[in-house]
Every structure is written in C-alpha cells, then in structure tokens.
Amino acid sequence: MALVRGGWTAGYDRAIVFRPVDPVGGPAGRRTPMAAVDRGWIGRTSQPTTVVVEAGAVRRFADAIGDPDPLYRDGEFARGVSQGPIQAPPTFAVALATEVAGLDIPLEPGLVHGEQEFIYRRPLYVGDVLTLQTEIKDVYEKQGRSGRLKFIVRETVATDQQGAEVVRFRTVSIVRPV
C-alpha cells in the first residue's frame, strides 16, 4: 500500500487517502522514464497543491508505523495535552509530498528511498489546510557497487491557511540499476 492522490473534497484540491499503487507505473498516465530525470530538472517546481490533514488519514498512518500514541487518535486527549486538535506524527509530512502535482517522478523498478529530513515550525494538526509545493533541488550520480546510482533531491514546503510555513522537508530518492 502507498499513499497517493485521493478523491475530491468539498472546497479543497485533494484529500489524503490510502489506496494500492502499481509498483511499476505509479498512478495511471503519469510516467516519465527515470532516464529522463537529469540535471536539467533542477529548479523544476510542482503546481501548488492544497490538502486537508484529516483524522482518518492520521490514524491510518499512525497504525501503519505502529505508533499507538493517543495524541494521534483521541481529540479529547490531544486537547488536554497540547490545547489543540489531534496532531499528525512527525513523519506524516512525507505522506503529504505524494499529493503534489506536476513533477511526475514515477515509481518504477530501481527507485528506492534514500533519506528524509523535516524542519517543523509547528506540529501538523487534523483540520489543517496546507498548500504544498515541491522543487527539484539536485540531481546527481555516483558510482555504486551495482553500477551508476542517480540521486534526486526534492524539497517540499507546506504553508497553512495564513500562508505561514508549517514544515519544510527534503527527500532523497535513489535510482539504482535493476
């Protein structure tokens, strides 16, 4: 299972939902061969995409990572601890990155997760309406034991309804020979 663009939500671009993804092609009709992702992609940005952080997605994400913390599930508990709504786990932001449109980096054999880094200005809360935009920051190659490896560095910025930055995160994907 992977987190991908979901259905329409009243008043917002996309809701975050879970559904199976073809591990070779990703969402239908969105294939760009990995060979085409080169240094010329540096500076490309996605379209701004608006998402809603919703309770069901946060709960399913917490279940998926095996975190039973009631801060991610129980509104009354969250209000008592943080004086706010249910929070999303810190790594939930990576699920948001799958929501951005316009860069179309496909899931295909040889594409693996390299690393991720999050810089939070405040926690993510259920009910947040976030606008995300991703930029390709770098594309480079290194020689590995199994052949040439391609590294794709993306940075996503999520802002809230007031335009304030909530989280900035960097993801490195590695394409290895298959």
What does this structure look like?
The chain has 178 residues and is mainly β. It has a single domain, classed as Hotdog Thioesterase (Thiol Ester Dehydrase, Chain A). Helices cover 13% and strands 36% of the residues. The protein contains three helices and seven strands. The chain has helices spanning 55-64, 75-82, 93-97, and strands spanning 2-5, 14-19, 49-52, 111-120, 129-144, 147-159, 165-175. A seven-stranded mixed sheet has the order 1-2-3-5-6-7-4. A hairpin with a 5-residue loop joins β6 and β7 (165-175). The model is unreliable at 1-31 (pLDDT under 50).
The proportion of residues in beta strands is 35-45%
Global Rg: 17 Å
Order of helices and strands: EEEHHHEEEE
Helix content: 10-25%
Low-confidence parts, pLDDT < 50 over ≥5 residues? 1-31
Average pLDDT level: 78
What is the correct CATH architecture?
A: Roll
Secondary structure layout plus pairing:
Layout: E1 2-5, E2 14-19, E3 49-52, H1 55-64, H2 75-82, H3 93-97, E4 111-120, E5 129-144, E6 147-159, E7 165-175
Summarize the structure.
The chain has 178 residues and is mainly beta.
Provide tags for this entry.
elongated; 178 residues; disordered N terminus; Thiol Ester Dehydrase, Chain A; 7-stranded mixed sheet; mainly beta; 36% strand; 7 strands
